[in-house]
Every structure is written in C-alpha cells, then in structure tokens.
Specification:
The chain has helices at 8-15, 39-56, 62-78, 119-127, 186-205, 216-225, 246-277, 285-293, 336-346; strands at residues 22-28, 87-92, 97-102, 109-113, 131-136, 140-146, 151-153, 161-162, 210-213, 234-236, 281-283, 297-303, 310-313, 316-319, 332-333, 350-354, 365-369. It has 371 residues and is an alpha+beta fold. The strands form four sheets. Strands 5, 6, 7, 8, 9 and 10 form a six-stranded mixed beta sheet that branches.
C-alpha cells in the first residue's frame, strides 16, 4: 500500500497493541536501475535477520514463531519488484502481514515489539502533505493533485477547463499564459471567474494548500476576478505547455515546494526558540519523553531518521549500545522514538519531522510545551 491510503482510522488500528511479537521490517529502496538491483538481496537478508531474532527470543512460542515466519515469507513474495519508492515497511504478526511503500527513505531495521512500528508511516504522511496546483491561462486551466514526490492531473470539479473555440486560431500561443493583451478582454475575465468558482468548490470538498502556475498577468487577473487563490502558498510565474507531463510539471513546481518546506522548518525553529524564551521547552530524548508522558507537549519536532534503543529505568531513558535488541518485558525498547511519536499524537500534540542534523543542537528531538 502507498501512504496515500493511510487514514486516521487505519493508523489507529496499526498502533493498537498486538500479541508479542509484532514484527516490523524497514529498509531503504531504490527507484531506478542499477541501484535497485541490490534491493531484493537486502530484503532477503533482512528476512533472515528477522527469523534469527525470532529463533533467539525465548518469549516467542514455537507456534507463533512458525506462523510469523510464514507471514513474513508471504510478504516478501508479494513485494512488487517492478514498483518501488524510497523505502519499504513490512508488518507481520501470526495472523496477518502488510506491505507499505514509503516515499521517504527508511533505515534498515528489524523490530520485535507489542505494537507495529508506525513512525515511518506517520513521517511519510506528514512530509507528503497533499496539495492542489492550478495551471492558469486565458483559455485553459488544469488542476493537479500532488504530494511531496508525485503529481497527476485531476479530473474533478469541472477541471480541466477550457474556453470553447469556434475555430482554431493559429496565432494563439501553445504556452499557458498567452500574450499580456489577452487579459484585457471580457471573455477572459468571465473564464477566469469560472475557474475561481470551480476551485472554490474543490477546496470546500477537500481543503489543501494551493500552488499556482502561469504567467504573471494570468495570475493577477485570477486574483482580481475571484479571490480564492489569493492565499496560495506558492506561485510559479512561468508559462508551461498545456500538455506538460507529470514529471515535467513536478520539476517546474519543485522550487515552490522547496520554499514551502523551508518556511515550515523555519516556523518550527521559531516555535522552539519562543518556547525556550518562555521556559516551556524540552530538548533531548529523556526530557521530551517525560513531557509527552505528562501530556505537556504542544509540539514535538524530531529528525526523520533519529532512532535510539534505550533501557527504561525509574521512568527515565538510558541509551544502550547500538545493536542491543529489545526485550519482551519492555525494559529494553528498540522503538522508543516511535512510541514517543505515538504518545505525542495521542495527547493532541503536533508532530513534525525535519531533515537529519537540523536538530543537532537540541539532541535530535525537541518539544514546545503547553506549560
């Protein structure tokens, strides 16, 4: 499954406690050759590691061990080697298995716990914030539906929208935007007013951030005749071919998407700085863990690939050497960051994932507190 299929209800089901052990496998994958040739080998090696862990764990019964191995083997066989993104997540218990394709890279891990590892799913969903993008011209408007790394033309709400032409006009440009003089006639104003109305209906049914693409006169007139697009989070003032491919369109939109992510990261940094000034701040795994358990965290920011195996002692977290495996009694926890993210979401906190090393001065994880 893709992370687009991850709903709040499904995430809640995945996070529900499971009979020990619930097995989670994560690994990075590659979209293109020749790099993707290694993925099948790495996946088999990961399966072998999971089987070794199951065999060595005295808390796993013989029946559970056999059933989980069967589920994992089925999952491996079902992985579609023709379609890959940047990461893979396989979840398995004695009764089921699930395969998730991630648009973000994931570390190579095997985790045995009493819940599935869902942090990678939450991060991918958060980082792949869906958006609308609208290309605008004097005679044509196309609506695109996108996430962080993919986009496609959307046929909904009356889009794509074109002005009926009585006869072909060989002088009309093939580029979206047309000539500046076009935007002074009433026909164009009526058309763009219709575009605005249809976009308003789409946003009412499915609110998302909106990006605009088109020549400056087209975007200015669209703002003037309607107003729905004025709060757009990004604008690309450039004419693009009406038949541009999804990959080509995503390339044109990339600078606006990058700027949006940078602005979001700056907003998080400002919130953390403000929290420090108000002495409502927690930094580092142990402090943030305590704040989340007490329900005091309003915002939790964590680096995408941050993970730490810990020993839980007297309500505190003590890091243990790399390679230490978790225990059935919960004393050693491999997936403590995942647990922290889940607990933060349960308490109503905002959880954001930032680029690796962006929170180095905060201990890789930080929180702005409610009090």
């Amino acid at each position: 499954m893709d992370t687009d299929a991850l709903t709040a209800g499904l995430l809640q089901e995945l996070r529900a406690p499971k009979p020990y052990p619930a097995v989670s496998l994560t690994m990075p994958t590659h979209r293109q050759a020749p790099d993707n040739a290694q993925d099948a080998v790495r996946l088999r090696n990961l399966l072998s590691e999971a089987e070794r862990r199951l065999d060595a764990d005295p808390a796993v019964s013989r029946e559970a061990r056999a059933a989980i191995k069967t589920q994992l083997a089925r999952a491996i066989d079902e992985v579609d080697t023709r379609r890959r993104l940047d990461g893979l997540l396989i979840l398995a218990t004695a009764d089921e298995h699930q395969i998730w394709l991630l648009p973000r890279t994931a570390p190579e891990r095997v985790v045995l716990s009493d819940t599935y590892l869902t942090r990678n799913l939450v991060a991918a969903k958060a980082l792949a914030e869906p958006y609308w993008a609208l290309t605008v011209a004097s005679d044509h408007a196309t609506l695109w539906s996108g996430t962080a790394d993919s986009v496609h033309q959307e046929q909904t709400g009356g889009f794509p929208l074109t002005v009926p032409q009585e006869a072909p006009n060989p002088q009309r440009e093939e580029q979206i935007g047309d000539t500046p003089s076009t935007f002074s006639d009433e026909e164009t104003r009526i058309f763009l007013r219709s575009v605005d109305e249809k976009l308003r209906a789409v946003l009412a049914a499915d609110p998302r951030p909106v990006y605009l693409v088109g020549l400056a006169p087209a975007l200015a007139l669209l703002d003037e005749v309607g107003g729905t697009t004025k709060p757009a989070v990004g604008r690309v003032t450039k004419g693009v071919p009406a038949d541009l491919s999804p990959s080509g369109f995503l390339k044109e939109l990339a600078p606006a998407l990058g700027q949006r992510r940078a602005e979001a990261a700056a907003e998080v940094a400002a919130r953390l700085d403000d929290a420090r000034g108000r002495r409502a701040y927690a930094g580092g795994l142990d402090e943030v863990w305590a704040a989340v358990r007490e329900g005091r965290a309003a915002l939790v920011a964590v680096e995408e690939q941050f993970q730490q195996t810990v020993r839980v002692t007297d309500e505190h977290l003590e890091p243990v050497p790399a390679g230490t495996v978790g225990t059935a009694d919960g004393t050693i926890r491999e997936d403590i960051v995942d647990e922290l993210v889940e607990a933060a979401l349960d308490s109503g906190a905002d959880v954001v994932f930032l680029a690796d090393d962006s929170l180095a001065e905060h201990g890789r994880i930080a929180a702005a507190l409610r009090y």
